[in-house]
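We emphasize that the prediction below concerns an isolated chain of 138 residues; any contacts that depend on oligomerization or on bound cofactors are therefore not represented. The input was used exactly as deposited, without trimming of termini.
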Amino acid sequence: MYYKSPKLTTDGAIIKDGRILLIKRKNEPFKGKWALPGGFVEYGEKVEDAVVREVKEETGLITKTKEILGVYSDPNRDPRGHTVTVVFLLEIINGKLKAEDDADSVKFFNLNKLPDLSFDHGKIIQDIIRRMKNNVLS
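Result of the prediction step, given as a token string:
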């Protein structure tokens, strides 16, 4: 018997001086809109490794995970089909900020002045801001 299953993705939140790192999407869906860096988990890969890999591929930055910020699973969050994302707070270790792979551009944005966002990343960032206000981010 065949069972449909959601695809697994990861997204990384890099926050520095009250600003969050976003990528401008090079491809559909949401081409030209901004998003947290991230992407699909490969078979056999841990989500922690996937987010570090995806962020490096899109931004040139080498990071490490600090904590899980949340899991987002609304079946309508991605027009390509049901995806579940695990969102991590990341710390920059090394690298040079440069748009690569699926990113057309990469930039830090003030958390109070965000551009048009893709997927459910507006909700994710609002959850991050709420946690920051409540001092629950490490």
